[in-house]
Amino acid sequence: MKLNVLKYFVVLAEELHFGRAAQRLAITQPPLSTAIKSLEDELGAALFLRSKTRVQLTPAGAAFLVEARKLLEGVERAVSVVRAIDQGMSGRLDIGFGGTLLFRDILTIIGQFNRELPGIEVMLREMPSAEQFDRLLHGRLDAGFAHGVTPPPELRSMPLKEDDLVLCLSVAHPMAAESVIDLARLEDEPFVMFEREMNPANHDTVIGLFSQASIHPRIVHYTRNWMTTMSMVSEGCGMAIVPCTLGRMRMAGVRLVPLAGPAVPARGMLVWNPALVTPGLERFLESAARTLADLSAK
């Protein structure tokens, strides 16, 4: 199975039009049609349903598209690794990150690395921590900025600068003007909660806070990203416990208020697979450690 045929298939699956796909590939339509027919014969399955007016993926085609993209991504990464090893100072790093960690000096770390080694391209990919761990274990990600402090045992990590959890509430709420709020007072308040599968560390920390306050939270909504969480709070759908750095989003209609008692950290970490450290990744980790040390000293 030839790589160029896989590329033809992926482009056609995205365009669902032979003419547009051929144009994107800078070839004529007949070679594209021949290549797709050859691929279907090789696989023993129809990948597309064709009519005079439309082209659509078959169930087999849809499944093959997922795997074809993985194969092409793997080849691209292999080429990048070879070039990085050969040249020492060039290549590409795929770095995962959890949404809110973008406000936790990630861009400062990457910006400093780019200044030190401009020949190494850094591509950020937003994804949940669990997906980052899986990709790191299978060699499909170089490093990741994830929530929590305990990655799977096969991985290594360094802590990010700590953030504190605070209460996010609508500016129209009677408590919005207060300077600090005791969680125990909120037993009857509705809460918007982050889905555990998206951020287990944060979810478990927040549930632990409720338990320490001896209250059972009245959770009325679940969300999968912080923008949605804060938007729902701004519309009066409930309160939420969020990392303090989300204040940098400057979202209208919400106020972040510290919780009474000792500060509760929202922890994050830079994670990597020690069995798959390339020269470029080694330099990135060294740069990140220096930048984090500088940030902690401020």
TrEMBL record:
<dbReference type="GO" id="GO:0003677">
    <property type="term" value="F:DNA binding"/>
</dbReference>
<dbReference type="InterPro" id="IPR036390">
    <property type="entry name" value="WH_DNA-bd_sf"/>
</dbReference>
<dbReference type="GO" id="GO:0032993">
    <property type="term" value="C:protein-DNA complex"/>
</dbReference>
<keyword id="KW-0804">Transcription</keyword>
<protein>
    <submittedName>
        <fullName>LysR family transcriptional regulator</fullName>
    </submittedName>
</protein>
<keyword id="KW-0805">Transcription regulation</keyword>
<dbReference type="Pfam" id="PF00126">
    <property type="entry name" value="HTH_1"/>
</dbReference>
<dbReference type="InterPro" id="IPR000847">
    <property type="entry name" value="LysR_HTH_N"/>
</dbReference>
<dbReference type="GO" id="GO:0003700">
    <property type="term" value="F:DNA-binding transcription factor activity"/>
</dbReference>
<dbReference type="InterPro" id="IPR005119">
    <property type="entry name" value="LysR_subst-bd"/>
</dbReference>
<dbReference type="InterPro" id="IPR036388">
    <property type="entry name" value="WH-like_DNA-bd_sf"/>
</dbReference>
<keyword id="KW-0238">DNA-binding</keyword>
<dbReference type="Pfam" id="PF03466">
    <property type="entry name" value="LysR_substrate"/>
</dbReference>
<feature type="domain" description="HTH lysR-type">
    <location>
        <begin position="1"/>
        <end position="58"/>
    </location>
</feature>
<comment type="similarity">
    <text>Belongs to the LysR transcriptional regulatory family.</text>
</comment>
